[in-house]
Amino acid sequence: xxxxxxxxxxxxxxxxxxxxxxxxxYGNCAPRDADTIVALGGDGFMLxxxxxTQHLDVPVYGMNRGTIGFLMNEYGEADLPERLAxxxxxxxxxxxxxxxxxSGQLHEALAINEVSMLRAGPQAAKLRITVDGRLRLAELxxxxxxxxxxAGSTAYNYSAHxxxxxxxxxxxxxxxxxxxxxxxxxxxxxxxxxKVRIDVLxxxxxxxxxxxxxxxxPDIDWVEIRSATNIRHRILFxxxxxxxxxxISEQFT
Length: 253
Hints:
There is one protein chain. The protein is of the alpha+beta class. It folds into two domains: 5-92 and 232-250, 3-Layer(aba) Sandwich (Rossmann fold), CATH 3.40.50; 95-227, Probable inorganic polyphosphate/atp-NAD kinase, domain 2 (Tumour Suppressor Smad4, Sandwich). Helices cover 17% and strands 40% of the residues. It contains five helices and 17 strands. Strands 6-5-16-13-8-9 form a six-stranded antiparallel sheet, with no helix packed on it. Strand 1, helix 1 (13-26) and strand 2 (36-41) form a beta-alpha-beta unit. The longest helix is centred in the N-terminal third of the chain and has 14 residues, at 13-26. Keywords: ATP-binding, Cytoplasm, Kinase, NAD, NADP, Nucleotide-binding, Transferase.
């Protein structure tokens, strides 16, 4: 029995060309009718696809037509049904963010990679960090801080010198971005069940923005971050090239 495939592609010409070739070869259907969604692009497009189709409970198989492609498989037109049949599934949960801005408006967003707080002016941010209602850091002077999932730990988190987390570790990474005080504080590992609150100190003088997978909100007073275990993203990888293997390999390059 042939599987129904929905092909989605980013706007870049190489991804659109690939989509046309695959649709001509294998046909196409709407994502809501698909057994598998094939996303053609880079990691950014993969994140947008996962966010946009999370209500469908359909696995997503990415093929790299972008730049980095950490969440993607190698591109190839031949034997796609066989590759999909042999693919291994990884299930990840996103982060849920609630953020209050200085006007009193509440914003909500989901992040598969990370939620970050970033300074939005010339002066360093001053942040206060509370975990599960307990004050853990009264003042962090920095360019920002982020909370990362295991799936996102090799992205911005890794660039900020945060740890790479195994997929099955059930922990989150709390990582400082260019910390000035405490100068040597690099962050913490937290249980997946933790609820993190970050308050902005001197918000008028030191404005801070919140970002959840590139969805940004300016002039933030505080954010609350937790793992959304009720939401499951199903990602397919070729055998031997799943997220677990990629996370390990990344530490030896």
